[in-house]
Design brief:
Layout: E1 8-10, E2 16-25, E3 28-42, E4 45-50, E5 59-64, E6 71-83, E7 86-96, H1 98-115
Antiparallel strand pairs: 1-3, 2-3, 2-5, 3-4, 4-7, 5-6, 6-7
Organism: Aquibacillus halophilus
Protein name: PilZ domain-containing protein
Length: 119
């Protein structure tokens, strides 16, 4: 059952994106550069796979090679699953750059028009 209020773009073949991830836990801050697989993404959240391990409630700032040279999203890990020596995460997005918002808003408008038979 889908519990989301906003649309998510789901990838049949999850794209890989280079990512620089800044994480904070308490007063500790670290950063890593890695490749992540993006399973789905929307205005309020995204799901990704990484070999890096993060904790639930950990806050991440991700710089992704996605819609522009660097797309930035910031948010909190809200769920985590371990699979095949990597981790699948759900990130609740708190803020993102303009390009990310613009792309996702356009996608939601497309879905609205499609559902009305206009697309």
């Amino acid at each position: 059952m889908e519990r989301r209020d906003r649309a998510r773009l789901k990838a049949k073949q999850p794209p890989s994106a280079n990512a620089t991830i800044f994480s904070t836990t308490g007063s500790m801050m670290s950063h890593n550069t890695t490749v992540v697989k993006l399973h789905n993404f929307g205005l309020e959240g995204l799901s990704f796979t990484s070999e890096l391990e993060f904790s639930i409630h950990e806050y991440l700032a991700m710089h992704l090679d996605l819609f522009s040279p660097k797309t930035q999203v910031c948010g909190e890990i809200v769920w985590k699953k371990e699979a095949n020596n990597s981790f699948i995460y759900g990130l609740n997005i708190h803020t993102a750059d303009f390009t990310y918002h613009q792309y996702m808003h356009s996608y939601e408008k497309y879905l609205e028009n499609r559902d009305k038979g206009l697309a």
